[in-house]
From TrEMBL:
<keyword id="KW-0677">Repeat</keyword>
<dbReference type="GO" id="GO:0071555">
    <property type="term" value="P:cell wall organization"/>
</dbReference>
<dbReference type="GO" id="GO:0009245">
    <property type="term" value="P:lipid A biosynthetic process"/>
</dbReference>
<feature type="domain" description="MobA-like NTP transferase">
    <location>
        <begin position="6"/>
        <end position="117"/>
    </location>
</feature>
<keyword id="KW-0511">Multifunctional enzyme</keyword>
<dbReference type="Pfam" id="PF25087">
    <property type="entry name" value="GMPPB_C"/>
</dbReference>
<dbReference type="GO" id="GO:0003977">
    <property type="term" value="F:UDP-N-acetylglucosamine diphosphorylase activity"/>
</dbReference>
<dbReference type="InterPro" id="IPR050065">
    <property type="entry name" value="GlmU-like"/>
</dbReference>
<dbReference type="GO" id="GO:0009252">
    <property type="term" value="P:peptidoglycan biosynthetic process"/>
</dbReference>
<feature type="binding site">
    <location>
        <position position="224"/>
    </location>
    <ligand>
        <name>Mg(2+)</name>
    </ligand>
</feature>
<feature type="region of interest" description="Linker">
    <location>
        <begin position="227"/>
        <end position="247"/>
    </location>
</feature>
<comment type="pathway">
    <text>Nucleotide-sugar biosynthesis; UDP-N-acetyl-alpha-D-glucosamine biosynthesis; N-acetyl-alpha-D-glucosamine 1-phosphate from alpha-D-glucosamine 6-phosphate (route II): step 2/2.</text>
</comment>
<feature type="binding site">
    <location>
        <position position="22"/>
    </location>
    <ligand>
        <name>UDP-N-acetyl-alpha-D-glucosamine</name>
    </ligand>
</feature>
<protein>
    <recommendedName>
        <fullName>Bifunctional protein GlmU</fullName>
        <ecNumber>2.7.7.23</ecNumber>
        <ecNumber>2.3.1.157</ecNumber>
    </recommendedName>
</protein>
<dbReference type="GO" id="GO:0005737">
    <property type="term" value="C:cytoplasm"/>
</dbReference>
<dbReference type="InterPro" id="IPR029044">
    <property type="entry name" value="Nucleotide-diphossugar_trans"/>
</dbReference>
<feature type="active site" description="Proton acceptor">
    <location>
        <position position="360"/>
    </location>
</feature>
Length: 455
């Protein structure tokens, strides 16, 4: 079976009250449409057609990719009209229709739906709802076979009592779809070309409309306003949290934890409250992440400890290294095994060797720091001259006293020591002591100034 997927994403989304097209609103850091495309790709289709209309340029710009065919629907004349725009491009035998504003649909559910497409049969995803107001209703004949879908606005009182709702997601034979969509009319209460009318056509053509249901009704829930968007967000996060817990992560509170990317975890990981993981984050065994940390595009090797309120981006933390509380590790930071970064320390494009330490209040930018080297409190690299960035290179076993200014480019070789309060501007050789500060002068008999009396 060859498959193509059509994603409807042309609608306006007035109730979002936003300049951003509805399908670009984010769930877990990715647009709703981005999530649908991600799931669609996992079904390995020949091509994905995205029907766009409102905010078409913005959508195309944000999501452009080789496997996506954007099809413009100039006027939003209905879901059937939208699908019809994509039909001329379809070359495969099966078409799956998805929605850009229904982001939580699970790949497993779609696989079950696609299994229903066999000769003489198509697949429809339906959902049992306590209150199906607004949904198209699934009409079944006396044998329980689907015979039609009736839109809420077109339904009789008796039909409105049906609790089985149409999710809109369906899988059909491509050759039939072309015929059906060409025969749709807009002779209904809303004056729209309804995709749902193809169900009755299929039945009239002798096809069986077989149905599947999602395990979880939230999978087929759309977001029309920001309240619904927030509900989908929380649902996504709880689901992501459950997956991590199943893999051996303790979450202190799954309701206060957010994933906005792809996370790989080991076992016996502990994550405290209000942690946000973004982008690609790899967390190995026995890692502990304290409360209020943001960790983006980083790798935390076995046994790393991140203490409260740390912000880590584009960093690699070696086995048993630790950072925080209040550490800021910026892109290009590498901590080798057992390196230690303490409070109010900022690192950028800095390499901290095995067992090296920067315990307090430091800025280390564009720096190469050897094993076991100790950086005193208040030390900064002066890496920027206003035009160019320069490198600071420290060897192994260096001891930088407190409150040093290391004016790059500068080299401090293995075993060297710098005195507290030094401004280091030139090379310090192996095992030398560098003192780069004014000598202390003590003045005897010093009289403090007296307060001037105002007349
Ligand atoms: C649709 C279904 C309904 C189902 C419900 C589930 C039809 C006629 N009705 O109703 O049976 O219960 O979804 O939520 O299909 N879109 C376009 N172009 C258009 C019209 C719509 O791209 O011309 C897109 C919208 O952006 C949206 C989706 O299709 O993502 C559904 O459209 P919407 O108008 O919300 O359909 P409903 O009235 O909710
Ligand atoms: Ca809708």
């Amino acid at each position: 079976m060859s498959l193509e997927i059509v994603i409807l994403a042309a609608g306006q989304g007035t109730r979002m009250r936003s300049a951003l097209p509805k399908v670009l609103h984010p769930i877990a850091g990715n647009s709703m449409l981005g999530h649908v495309i991600h799931s669609a790709r996992q079904l390995d289709p020949q091509r994905i057609h995205v029907v766009i209309g409102h905010g078409a340029d913005a959508v195309r710009e944000r999501l452009a990719a080789d496997d996506l065919n954007f099809v413009l629907q100039d006027k939003q004349l209905g879901t059937g009209h939208a699908v019809a725009q994509a039909v001329p491009f379809i070359q495969s035998d099966t078409v799956l229709v998805l929605y850009g504003d229904v982001p939580l649909i699970e790949v497993e559910t779609l696989q079950r739906l696609l299994k229903l497409v066999v000769p003489g049969q198509m697949g429809l995803l339906t959902v049992e709802l306590d209150d199906a107001t607004g949904y198209g209703r699934i009409v079944r004949d006396t044998d329980g076979k689907v015979s039609a879908i009736v839109e809420h606005k077109d339904a009789t009182e008796a039909q409105r009592a049906i609790n089985e709702g149409n999710t809109g997601i369906l899988a059909v034979p491509a050759d039939r779809l072309a015929d059906w969509t060409s025969r749709l009319s807009n002779n209904n209460v809303q004056g729209e070309y309804y995709l749902t009318d193809v169900i009755e056509m299929a039945v009239n053509d002798g096809l069986v409309v077989a149905t599947e249901q999602p395990h979880d009704a939230m999978e087929v829930q759309g977001a029309n306003d920001r309240k619904q968007l927030s509900e989908l967000e929380r649902h996504y996060q709880l689901r992501a949290g459950r997956r991590l817990m199943a893999q051996g992560v303790t979450l202190r509170d799954p309701a206060r934890f957010d994933v906005r990317g792809e996370i790989t975890v080991g076992r016996d990981v502990l994550i405290d409250i209000n942690v946000i993981l973004e982008g690609k984050v790899v967390i190995e065994d026995d890692v502990v992440i304290g409360p209020n940390c943001v960790i983006k595009d980083s790798t935390l090797r076995k046994g790393v400890v991140i203490k409260a309120n740390s912000h880590i981006e584009g960093a690699i933390l070696g086995e048993g290294s630790d950072a925080g509380p209040f550490a800021r590790l910026r892109p290009g930071t590498v901590l080798e095994a057992r390196a230690h970064v303490g409070n109010f320390v900022e690192l950028k494009n800095a390499h901290l060797g095995e067992g090296a330490k920067a315990g307090h209040l430091a800025y280390l930018g564009d720096a190469e720091i050897g094993a076991r080297t100790n950086i005193g409190a208040g030390t900064i690299t002066c890496n920027y001259d206003g035009v160019n960035k320069w490198k600071t290179v420290l060897g192994a076993d260096v001891f930088i006293g407190s409150n040093n200014s290391l004016v790059a480019p500068v080299d401090i070789l293995d075993g060297a020591t710098t005195a507290a309060g030094s401004t280091i501007t030139s090379t310090v050789d192996k095992s030398q002591l560098a003192i780069g500060r004014a000598r202390q002068k003590n003045i005897d008999g010093w009289k403090r100034p007296e307060k001037v009396k105002k007349s």
